[in-house]
Amino acid sequence: MICRSKAPFRLGIAGGGTDVSPYADLYGGAILNVTINRFAHATLRPTEDGQVRLIHVNEGLCAELPAAAHLEPVKGLELQCGVYNAVAARFCGGKPLSLELTTQLDVPSGSGLGTSSTLVVAILGAFVEWLHLPLGRYDIARLAYEIERIDLGMAGGRQDQYAATFGGVNFMEFRDGERVVVNHLTLPEAILNEWAMNTVLLYTDKRRESARIIEEQMANVRERKSDSVEAMHRVKAEAFRIKDCLLRGDLESLGDALNVSWINKKKMAAEISNDFIDRIYDTAIHSGATGGKISGAGGGGFMFFHCPGNTRYAVVQALEKLGIGQVYDFEFCKEGLTTWTV
Question: Which of 21, 144, 273, 297 could form an S-S bond across to 120 if both were Cys, CB 3.0 to 4.6 Å?
Answer without folding.
Answer: 144
